[in-house]
Design a protein that fits this description.
Bound molecules: adenosine monophosphate, magnesium ion
Number of strands: 15
Strand order of the largest sheet: 1-5-6-9-12-13-14
Largest sheet: 7 strands, antiparallel
Length: 309
C-alpha cells in the first residue's frame, strides 16, 4: 500500500507481544497482496485487467468487503469519493514526474474509464464486473484504514487488548494503555503545510486519519495540487486543506477524511455529522488566514493544545 505500518501494544510478556505483532503484520502483508495497486499481481490489479471484457470475476471476501463499502460510500458522497479514480491517479503521478498537467485529451480519455457506476457487484455470488475498458481501481483512500482494523482484530485474537496501529497516518486504537485515559495522538492543526502546533487527542476504541497535501503534492505555475483528486475534474484539489477525522474505526476515518476533503467544509462536515460516531476538523490555507471548521462531535472531543506560539 506504499506506506509503513507501525504497531504499539501492551502484552503480558515479550513472547506474546512478538507473536501477536508478527501475526498482525502478516495480515497487513496479506491485505497488501489483495488491495495494492503498486503490486502488479495483487488481486486488485488482476481484477482490473478484466475491465471491459464483460467477465464477472469471483473475488476474495476481503476485496468484496472493501468494494462493497467503497460503492456505498460513493453513493453517499454522490461521487466525491470514488474508487474508480485510478486512471486520474495515473495521470497525476505522471504529472508529478514530468512537471506538467495532463492535457485535456488525456483527461477526456481517462474520464471514459472513471465512474463508480461502471463497477458492478453481484451480491448473489459475490462477483465483480468492471464494465468499461481501462478501468483502474484505487484503494488509496480506504485500504489502509481497512488494513489497520483487520490487524487490530488479529491482535485481539492473540489476547492483546491495548494497542495502537498506524498505517501511514491511518491510526486505530483499542483499550487505553494501563493507567491512562486514552492513547495520546498529536495532530497538526495550523496551516495544512505546517506541523509546528499540534492538538493532542486522547483516544480509545477509535480510528483517526488525516487527509491533506502535506507530503504529497505537485506545484505547477504557482498552484499547489493535492494527491486527493476531484473525480469531477480529474485534477488534484487546490484549496490546500487538511482534514482530520476521528471515527469508530480506521476504515471510516480513512474514507471520510478523503470524502470531506473533496466535499469542502459545508457538505463535508454535514456528512461527518450524519456518520455515526464521526468527528471532523477542516482547516484551509487561505492567503494569510487558516480558517478552521469543527463538526459537532469534534468540539466535544477530549483535546489539548501542544507546541509554542
Ligand atoms: P487519503 O490520503 O486517504 O486522503 O487518500 C488519498 C489517495 O486516495 C490518493 O493518493 C489516491 O490514491 C486516492 N484518491 C484520490 N482522490 C480520491 C477520491 N476522490 N476518491 C477516492 N480515492 C481517491
Ligand atoms: Mg482516506
Amino acid at each position: 500500500m506504499g506506506t509503513l505500518f507501525r504497531i504499539a501494544l501492551y502484552a503480558s510478556d515479550s513472547t506474546q507481544a512478538g507473536q501477536a505483532a508478527r501475526a498482525a503484520f502478516n495480515r497487513v502483508a496479506e491485505l497488501n497482496h489483495i488491495l495494492s495497486d503498486y503490486e502488479p499481481n495483487s488481486e486488485l490489479n488482476q481484477l482490473c485487467r478484466t475491465a471491459g471484457t464483460g467477465q464477472w470475476v469471483p473475488v476474495s471476501k476481503e476485496l468484496w468487503f472493501v468494494l462493497k463499502k467503497s460503492v456505498a460510500v460513493s453513493e453517499r458522497t454522490k461521487g466525491a469519493f470514488d474508487v474508480t479514480v485510478g486512471p486520474y491517479v495515473q495521470l497525476w503521478r505522471r504529472a508529478r514526474r514530468q512537471g506538467e498537467l495532463p492535457t485535456p485529451d488525456a483527461l477526456a480519455q481517462a474520464r471514459k474509464a472513471v465512474g463508480y457506476q461502471h463497477l458492478k457487484l453481484n451480491n448473489k455470488n459475490k462477483t465483480v464486473q468492471l464494465a468499461v475498458p481501462n478501468m483502474q481501481l484505487d484503494m488509496g483512500a480506504i485500504g489502509k484504514g481497512y488494513a489497520v482494523d483487520e490487524a487490530l482484530k488479529i491482535l485481539r485474537k492473540h489476547g492483546i487488548k491495548s494497542a495502537l496501529i498506524d498505517g501511514g497516518g491511518n491510526i486505530v486504537v483499542s483499550r487505553p494503555p494501563p493507567g491512562t485515559k486514552g492513547w495520546a495522538v498529536s495532530l497538526g492543526i495550523t496551516a495544512p503545510t505546517d506541523n509546528t502546533r499540534q492538538l493532542k487527542l486522547l483516544l480509545k476504541h477509535q480510528g483517526v486519519a488525516t487527509s491533506g497535501d502535506l507530503y504529497q503534492y505537485l506545484i505547477l505555475d504557482g498552484v499547489r495540487y493535492s494527491h486527493i483528486l476531484n473525480p469531477f475534474t480529474g485534477l488534484g484539489l487546490t484549496d490546500q486543506s487538511r482534514v482530520t477525522i476521528v471515527a469508530r474505526n480506521g476504515l471510516t476515518a480513512d474514507w471520510l477524511s478523503t470524502a470531506v476533503s473533496v466535499l469542502g467544509p459545508t457538505d463535508g462536515l454535514a456528512l461527518a455529522d450524519k456518520t455515526p460516531g464521526a468527528a471532523a476538523s477542516f482547516i484551509r490555507q487561505e492567503k494569510d488566514q487558516t480558517p478552521q471548521w469543527l463538526s459537532r462531535r469534534f468540539k466535544k472531543l477530549n483535546t489539548s493544545l501542544l507546541g509554542t506560539e
